[in-house]
Amino acid sequence: MRCIKCGRKANKGRRHPCRHCGGKVISVSNKMLRVCQLFAEAGFNVSRAEIGAYTAMGVGYNVTSICVYFDEVYPREVFVGLPEAFLYEDRQGGESRVRHNPHSSMYRALMQDEQTREQSMISLLAGFMDDKDIEAMQAVGKLLGGVHA
Ligand SMILES: [Zn+2]
Question: From the CA of 81, how far away is ligand 1's center (Å)?
Answer without folding.
Answer: 30
